[in-house]
Amino acid sequence: MNITDTHCHIDLAVFDADRDSIIKNCLSLGINRLVVPAIAANSWDNLLNITRQYSCLSHALGLHPVFIRQHKPSDISSLEQYINQHKPIAVGEIGLDFFIENPDREKQKDVFNDQLLLAEQHRLPVILHVRKAHDDVLALLKSKKITGGSCHAFNGSLDQAKRYIDLGFKLGFGGTMTYPNARKIHELARQLPLESILLETDAPDMSGFSHQGSRNQPDFIIDALKALADIKSMSLQELAMQTTDNAREVFGFS
Question: With 16 labelled, which of 72, 192, 202, 218 sits at a CA distance of 20 to 30 A?
Answer without folding.
Answer: 72
